[in-house]
């Protein structure tokens, strides 16, 4: 039976698109049953709607960065009702805590644009550039209550070029992200 996925994102959703593409070309036996965002105008919602996937905005109570516990509880209840097997964070900018973690133990994944444990947090590609790293990359990991601290599932390396800008480096990392995320989902499924 194919895997039931939920994708949570705050932005453009190119990683969500890479999951759709992997499903369509047979690399991933899965169905995205819902896409949730904390921003009504996030393009990730548009990508879902264009595909006919249920797309909804979560009510974060007007908080800019906080992911209120009541909101996490209602998201967990909705995902349980939809019989979701795995939750993929794809550019989701709020910290997941107990209500969701408890509902989906070892079933929440995140993609991060650096080789964790190096450069956790925001704009990791910029952090790598500013630190003078010769190599960076991307990581798919299990989500725990910390920021980008959960067990690593898979990583891809990306060299930093001498003429790289933050933008060019992030673009090259994203090319790798789009290959890595579907592969890492498969690896996580094999461990269930
Ligand atoms: C990606 O670089 C991802 O690693 C990070 O946020 C970005 C999301 O991009 N967590 P997109 O919305 O999937 O295009």
Strand content: 15-25%
CATH superfamily: Formyl transferase, N-terminal domain
Mean pLDDT: 97
SSE series: EHEHEHEHEHEEH
Q: Count the E strands.
A: 7
CATH class: Alpha Beta
State Rg. 16 Å
Instruction: Write out the strand line-up for the largest beta sheet, numbering strands in chain order.
Output: 3-2-1-4-5-6-7
**Please, how many domains?**
1
Shape field: globular
Low-confidence stretches: none
Largest sheet: 7 strands, mixed
CATH topology: Rossmann fold
CATH architectural type: 3-Layer(aba) Sandwich
Structural class: alpha/beta
Distance between the termini: 14 Å
Helical segment tally?
6
Give the distinct bound molecules: 5-O-phosphono-beta-D-ribofuranosylamine
* Overall helicity: 25-40%
Question: Can you describe what's shown?
Answer:
The longest helix is centred in the last third of the chain and has 25 residues, at 166-190. The chain is of the alpha/beta class and 192 residues long. It has one domain: Rossmann fold (3-Layer(aba) Sandwich). Strand 2, helix 2 and strand 3 form a beta-alpha-beta unit. It has helices at 14-24, 43-51, 69-81, 98-103, 124-130, 166-190, and strands at residues 3-9, 30-37, 55-57, 86-89, 108-112, 135-142, 152-159. The model has no long low-confidence stretch (mean pLDDT 97). It has a 7-stranded mixed sheet with strand order 3-2-1-4-5-6-7. The protein binds 5-O-phosphono-beta-D-ribofuranosylamine. 5-O-phosphono-beta-D-ribofuranosylamine (GRF) binds at residues 9, 11-15, 90-91, 111-113, 138, 174, 177.
């Amino acid at each position: 039976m194919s895997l039931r996925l939920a994708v949570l994102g705050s932005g453009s959703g190119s990683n969500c698109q890479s999951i759709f593409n992997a499903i369509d070309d047979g690399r991933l036996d899965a169905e995205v049953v819902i896409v949730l965002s904390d921003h009504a105008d996030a393009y990730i919602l548009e990508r879902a709607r264009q595909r006919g996937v249920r797309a909804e905005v979560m009510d974060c109570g007007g908080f800019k960065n906080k992911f209120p516990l009541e909101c996490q509880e209602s998201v967990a209840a909705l995902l349980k009702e939809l019989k979701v097997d795995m939750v993929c964070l794809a550019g989701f900018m709020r910290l997941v805590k107990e209500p969701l973690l408890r509902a989906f133990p070892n079933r929440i994944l995140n993609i991060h644009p650096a080789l964790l444990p190096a450069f956790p947090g925001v704009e990791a590609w910029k952090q790598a550039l500013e630190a003078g790293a010769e190599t960076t990359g991307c990581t798919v990991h299990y989500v725990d209550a910390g920021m980008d601290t959960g067990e690593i599932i898979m990583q891809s390396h990306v060299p930093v070029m001498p003429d790289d800008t933050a933008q060019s480096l992030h673009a090259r990392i994203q090319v790798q992200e789009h290959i890595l995320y579907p592969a890492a989902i498969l690896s996580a499924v094999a461990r269930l």
